[in-house]
Each structure stands twice: as structure tokens, then as C-alpha cells.
Amino acid sequence: MDHSLPAGADAIVMDARDHVATALRDLQAGEVVRYQAGGKAGSVTLLEAVSFGHKLAVSDISEGTEVRKYGEVIGRSVAFIEAGRHVHVHNIEGIRGRGDQAEAKEGGGAL
Amino acid sequence: MTAGSKQATFMGYERENGDVGIRNHLLIIPTVICSNQVSSRVSQLVPGAIAVPHQHGCSQIGADKDRTFDVLAGTGMNPNVGAVLIISLGCEVVDPQALADKIRVTGKPVEWFDIQSVGGSIKAIEHGAKLARELQAKLHMQPKVPIPLSRLKVGVKCGGSDATSGLASNPALGAAADSLVREGGTIVIGETTEIIGAEHVLAERCAEPVIKEQLYHIVDRFEREVERMGADMRGGNPSPGNIAGGLSTIEEKSLGCISKCGTSPILGVIEYAEQLPEGGLYFMDSPGNDIECVSGMAAAGAHIVCFTTGRGTPTGAAVIPVIKITGNGRTFKLMEDNMDVDVSPMLDGSLPLEEAGERVWQEIIEVADGKLTKAEILGHQEFSINRIGPSL
């Protein structure tokens, strides 16, 4: 990351390819959140509260999508996520370091 | 000193082998858990002495035993240490004579004895205190001299991360890391676990194809170990606190982590506690565990660790200052006892990245010059050795 953060933003989108913004303060349901993404202004209406440091969807994310932040893949959605929803462990999962799934694959045949 | 001013030197200690130190500690090393209590008692009798009690040193074999030896030796060899007293039980697997010989290569005074030969705890404490007092007296005679900033070796670490780590404190530390590398100094980043999902970004910065292969190899080895345990990393890393702070996956945490080492090319991958080369950026294969990683960096010869945290942690280290940097304004206020640098104004746009980096860089220079970190003032001397084998 080679940029400074914009003054007075409610949320920050790190890269134009990102599906999510990070809340820079505690945000309430119904708030219209404005952000900059790749030099363009965007806004999204929050469907639920999102705490400082947590993520919100800036676009609709279909189930099974590789979700991006910093322009890179941070995980995969496990449900449809509407723009304005809180994005966290309840609707995205990690793809890497998943020993639980390795075991499920191996054990699957025996069950 | 004003922000932006250039100071090409700091006042430090010249060692006999040409190393330079920013502190002048008397270190008391128990070779084994069985000599922890005697070591701690001796350190209490000689103010300024630092003991490093630990759980290991016996019932270990092979690479696991070697790792414990390397961390103890590296901690003794660390240039911030001026003299060493080794206290052995007398029957453990870590050989105190070999440990003393290894540390003596640096030219610093090293003494050792074993509790069984001296005749029990009380006599050992008395004997140890006499030796420690003599060593401490010698250290106090040593003058400080001007040393170029290019000689500094700094570890970069993050722990207790939240979303502000990736947005503010890690990029700020990265800018400071670039300043040190430009001066000719050395940066080491570790935490192999916490580049999972971001290794492709770092791999592109490896100076040679063989370094890139090594980087992929150590990440793959770590991930296979996690898979062998049959568990999801999530919950262990990212930790419950990371998740409460807004980090959802290891990939997200990793992508936020890597900016703390700056933008220099990666010149090599070193083993945990392996001696750091001089100049440029290196990757040390280490766990993400805060104390194990920082102890490994100290054993590798780092003078300072810069530690970013969003949630807040009090941790220090036995022989090196740990500078705590946070991008979370609430944490800075709540845990001001433990936080050295606040870069949270980055988040409302009032502190540009470049200035935040300069703030961290100036703190590094001042701490090298003798300014105590909060962790040092409060006596934080955490020490932990990473293990890679079973206890026998």
C-alpha cells in the first residue's frame, strides 16, 4: 500500500477490485456510507450496523465468490451477501490453512 | 531532534568482534528449566542483570535440541548483551561448556557453573551472585561511542492485530523499514503463518528465484502441518481477538501484515534464530506466536523489534527493546502504559503515510540512542523458545 488515507472518510476501499470497505468508525444501519474506490466516489446504504474495523459489502456478492480486499483474495463467500451487509466470519470463510476440510475429504469415503 | 532531521549515528557499544550493541546487558542463561529458579534469584541479587527462564533444555533430541541450543546461544551472542553467566543443573542435554564456547566467539566475557557441582540452590545462588557482580562491574566501565545507523538490525512484527494494523500501523512501519534499508541497515520479518494467502506478493519481491522457492517452501511446510492437525486455522490464527477486531480470515490478516516490512527486495530466507546477514531485508521462518518470534529475532542478532498492534499487548523481550506501534486510537489511550507510537491519525486522513513512517523511524533512532521503550521501563522481559519436537 503506497497511499495515505483520505480525510474524513467513513469507510475505506483499499483497491478498485475490492468487494468490501473497512469501517473507519462505528456505522449504524440505514447510514449512507461514502467511499473512494480507484479514484471514483461510491456510496452504499448500510443494511445493518458495522463496527469500527469491520467490513461491509460495497457490491452484491454471490455465494462462492472469491472476496477481495487490498485487491487480493481474502476468502470465499458462503452465502449471498447483499451490498450494505456486514462481511465477516458468518458469511465468508478462509480458503487456506483448512485442515478441517482436508480431514473431511479423507474421512468422507469411510462414513 | 525535530521530525525529518537526519542523524547518521547513535551512541552505542562496540563489541570485541566488531558487532555493535544498543544496550549493555548482563544476561543469565539457565541451560535447562531445572536451573530457572537459581538463575532468577541471582538476577534479583544483581540489579540490571536479566535472567531468561524457559521450559526447555532437557529431554530433547535432534533438530529440536539444536533449536533450543541455537536460541540460547544466539541470545547470549546478541550484541545488546555485554556479558553472560550460564547456570547449568549438571545433567541436562544442553551442554553448558559448548554453549559458553559458542558465545565466547564474540569475545564477550562468559562464565558458567553447574548447580550439582556447587552443591545445591543456596550455594549456587551465592556463587552465581558473586560471578554476576564481577561481570556487572566490568560492564559499567564500558563507554558508549558513535555508531552509524547502517549497523542497526531491526525486526518487524505484528501481534494482537485488528483491521487498523493493515490500514495504518503496518504501512507506517513499512515506511520506516524502507528508511532503515536506505541507510544501509537490516530488516527482518518473520511469521511464516501470517503470510499464508499473501506469499505471492512477497515472492514477487525475492531478489533471486531460489529465494522465492524457499519462501514458497516454508509456507507450504507450515500449511501442511496445519492440515495434518485436521483443524481450521481460523480461531487459532486469526485469533478470537483478531476476529473481534474485524479480521475474518488468515488471508485477510496476512495481506494486512506484509506491508510492515516495507518495499525492499527480499535478499534471503533464514532459519529461526539463524544469524542475520548485514544490510537489506530478510525473511525468518518463524511461527506467528509473538514471544517465540521476537525471541527468535533477538537470537538472530536484531537490536530492536518494532511491534505493531491494534488490540494492544504489553510484550517486551529479554535483551532487546520492543517498540509498540498502534493505529488504533482507542487502544493507544486505553493502553498508553504499553504503547510507544500512535499512528491512528492516519485513519482520519490527518497523518499522511510518509509522516507516520517518519514518526516510527525517529522512534527507532531514539531507542537505538538509549531512550527506553515502555516495555523496558515496565520490566517486560518475555522470552520463549520455539519447539519442533516432542518431549522425551
- Series of H and E elements of chain B: EEEHEHEHEHHEEHEHHHHEEHEEHEHH
Please outline the major beta sheet of chain A: 4 strands, antiparallel
Mean pLDDT of chain A: 88
Rg calc of chain B? 20 Å
| Number of helical elements of chain A | 1
What does this structure look like?
The complex is a heterodimer of chains A (111) and B (392). Chain A is mostly beta strands and 111 residues long. Chain A has one helix at 99-108, and strands spanning 11-12, 20-23, 32-37, 40-45, 55-57, 66-69, 72-77, 86-87, 92-93. Chain A has a single domain (11-108), classed as Archaeosine Trna-guanine Transglycosylase, Chain: A, domain 4. The longest helix of chain A has 10 residues, at 99-108. Chain B folds into two domains: 25-139, Sugar-phosphate isomerase, RpiB/LacA/LacB (Ribose 5-phosphate Isomerase B, Chain: A); 148-377. Chain B has helices at residues 36-45, 62-77, 96-104, 115-118, 121-139, 163-183, 199-203, 209-228, 240-244, 250-257, 290-299, 329-334, 353-368, 374-377; strands spanning 9-14, 20-21, 25-30, 49-51, 81-88, 110-114, 145-148, 153-158, 186-189, 266-270, 280-284, 304-308, 322-326, 341-342. The longest helix of chain B is centred in the middle third of the chain and has 21 residues, at 163-183. Chain B is globular, with a radius of gyration of 20 Å. Chains A and B meet through strand 7, strand 9 and helix 1 of A and helix 6, helix 8 and helix 10 of B.
Secondary structure blueprint with pairings:
The complex is a heterodimer of chains A (111) and B (392).
Chain A: E1 11-12, E2 20-23, E3 32-37, E4 40-45, E5 55-57, E6 66-69, E7 72-77, E8 86-87, E9 92-93, H1 99-108
Antiparallel strand pairs in A: 1-2, 2-5, 3-4, 5-8, 6-7, 7-9
Chain B: E1 9-14, E2 20-21, E3 25-30, H1 36-45, E4 49-51, H2 62-77, E5 81-88, H3 96-104, E6 110-114, H4 115-118, H5 121-139, E7 145-148, E8 153-158, H6 163-183, E9 186-189, H7 199-203, H8 209-228, H9 240-244, H10 250-257, E10 266-270, E11 280-284, H11 290-299, E12 304-308, E13 322-326, H12 329-334, E14 341-342, H13 353-368, H14 374-377
Parallel strand pairs in B: 3-4, 3-5, 5-6, 8-9, 8-12, 9-11, 10-11, 12-13, 13-14
Antiparallel strand pairs in B: 1-2, 1-7
